[in-house]
Amino acid sequence: MHEKHLLHADLKAANVLLNDAANWCLGDFGSSVKFGEKIVSCTESWYPGPIMFQPAEPKYDWGLMVVLLAMEIDKANWSALTGASSPAKIQKELLLAQCQRATHTGLKQLLAELLKDAHWV
C-alpha cells in the first residue's frame, strides 16, 4: 500500500487476514487515504497520539502495527494499555513498556524496527 502512497489507517486484528499457509494480508480498506491527505476515519482510540485530521504518512500505519502486536503480547490484559484514561485510549508509555516485555527475539527485533518507522524512538 505504501508503495502506492496509500495509508491503511485501520490496522487491527480484525483486518489482518491469514490463509491456510499462514500468509497474511490486509482487509477493510474503507479508511484508506492517500499520503498527504487528512486522515478522517480510523480507530482513534487505538493510536497513542493525535491521528485524526493529520496528513496521512506511513508512520501512522507502523504505529498501529505496534499497537496490534503489543496487544497480542498479553491478549488477556490488553486494556491495561489504556491506563486510567477516560475515554479509553492507548497510552504511549504503557505501550512502549509492553513492547519491552516481548520475549521472542524475532518479535523484539520487529517491534524495534516498527517503533523507528512510527517515529516513536
UniProtKB/TrEMBL annotation:
| PROSITE patterns assigned | PROTEIN_KINASE_DOM (PS50011), PROTEIN_KINASE_ST (PS00108)
What GO MF annotations does this protein's record show?
Answer: ATP binding; protein kinase activity
Q: Where is the Protein kinase domain?
A: 1-121
Q: Which domain of life is it from?
A: Eukaryota
Matches recorded under SUPFAM superfamilies: Protein kinase-like (PK-like)
Checking InterPro entries in the record gives: Kinase-like_dom_sf, Prot_kinase_dom, Ser/Thr_kinase_AS
Give the stretches traversing the membrane.
none
According to UniProt, the name of this protein is: Protein kinase domain-containing protein
